[in-house]
Specification:
With 288 residues, the protein is an alpha/beta fold. Helix content is 37%, strand content 16%. It has one domain: Alpha-Beta Barrel (TIM Barrel). InterPro entries: PHP_dom (IPR004013), PHP_domain (IPR052018), Pol/His_phosphatase_N (IPR003141), Pol/histidinol_Pase-like (IPR016195).
């Protein structure tokens, strides 16, 4: 089985609609794919309704957290999205995303960048507005040549001139919320050094004690030595070691399936979850 447990659609900062994401996943010979948009489950139904034959969908999310002043991402799987405490937090996070993005647009305009909120909103098809949408709007405005150039201290990198802090969950609270909703959590790309997501063994050990179920060990932004260390750490802590593409569509080169998860690791996660079901193709469509 080929299993990719981390990808995005245009419900957050991916560039492909959920239906196209699952079609591309099957075209890349994936058997299982998790849709993990940032702080939203808005793409689940479209993806499930468009599932091609032979592909299983894992309903998921990538939660925005903050650890010691640094952004941390937590992947949640197979939870009840209507669980009241979790649903309330997701609504708060998404509302703050809008407020923050508007404030960043105003800072950019004060710096002479001809970007507007309308440009950003047009690029953000879903409710989870993020910095990638602002970066793309900056490209459209001619302020930068590529979206990557926006993520510098000159512009919207953390601590940059136009950067604005946002509301984010404490990671241990995120774990409790997802677990209470019947789901399981995997720490996303914990050694993505180029992107600034670097958390040491002690942080991962503490999260494991708080209920973390897995570590995303194999990720396109992880160096070989970091992958090896994360696999060793997962084994020592009794965690599942996953592999995922973290595909965002065009910005990441449509790399679905570039990294995959071992079936036994996926089975461990699925067996530990009780709040949601895997989605499989609707066979009744074939008779219509």
């Amino acid at each position: 089985m080929r299993i990719d447990l981390h990808c995005h659609s245009d419900a957050s900062d991916g560039t492909r609609p959920p239906a196209e994401v699952v079609a591309r996943a099957r075209a890349r010979n994936l058997d299982v794919v998790a849709l993990t948009d940032h702080d939203t489950v808005a793409g689940w139904d479209e993806a499930a309704n468009a599932l091609p034959d032979g592909l299983t969908l894992v309903p998921g999310i990538e939660l925005s957290c903050m650890q010691d002043g640094l952004s941390m991402h937590m992947l949640g799987y197979l939870f009840d999205p209507e669980h009241p405490p979790l649903a309330a937090e997701l609504a708060r996070v998404c509302d703050d995303r809008v407020v923050r993005a508007q404030a960043m647009v105003e800072r950019l305009r004060a710096l002479g960048v001809e970007v507007t909120w309308g440009m950003v909103r047009a690029l953000a098809h879903g409710e989870a507005v993020g910095r990638p949408h602002i970066a793309r709007a900056m490209v459209e405005a001619g302020a930068v040549a590529t979206a990557d150039e926006a993520f510098t201290p000159r512009w919207i990198a953390q601590g940059g001139r136009a950067y604005v802090d946002r509301y984010a969950l404490d990671p241990e609270r995120a774990l409790r919320l997802v677990r209470a909703a019947g789901g399981v959590c995997v720490l996303a790309h914990p050694r993505a050094r180029r992107r600034g997501y670097v958390f040491d063994d002690e942080v991962i050990e503490r999260l494991a004690a708080a209920g973390l179920a897995g570590i995303e060990a194999d990720h396109p932004d992880h160096a070989p030595e970091d992958r090896a260390r994360l696999h060793d750490l997962a084994a020592a802590l009794g965690l599942a070691a996953t592999g995922s593409s973290d595909d965002h569509g065009a910005p990441t080169g449509d790399r679905l399936g570039a990294e995959t998860t071992a079936p036994e690791a996926f089975e461990r996660l699925a067996e530990a979850a009780s709040g949601g079901d895997l989605r499989v193709p609707d066979r009744s469509r074939e008779a219509r």
